[in-house]
Amino acid sequence: MTDPITRLATRDAAAPAGHYSQGAAWGDLVFVSGQLGARPDGSHTADRPFEVQARQALASLLAILAEAGSGPERILRVTAYVVGVAHWPEFNRIYADVMGGAKPARTVVPVPELHHGYLVEVEAIAVRGG
Description:
This protein has 2 helices and 6 strands, in the order βββαβαββ. By secondary structure, the chain is an alpha+beta fold. 35% of the residues are buried. InterPro entries: RutC-like_sf (IPR035959), YjgF/YER057c/UK114 (IPR006175). This is RidA family protein.
């Protein structure tokens, strides 16, 4: 396949703070970079409760997917990094609420810490269209 790689950027998610793009698409595949709970204007929610952080991270992920012409029902796989196993049940509840009927393959990885003191980060692989 000789399709070009498209770098994704939307104002509905925080701009990358490093040398990467919010996401990339190749053909019908969409790869969303890890999203912390940063707001689209770049302000942080790391000092806010887990639920606020998780909902913002998932909202950013979905905004990037929308920019690529995709959505929750087109997600193939999600990886979530959660600080501490204790947040896992709350993440499950929030994730189910945000994702609705979409049930992509998913991995939750408990980690000791994340950048800027965040408690959750999510990334995804999806298919365009829908």
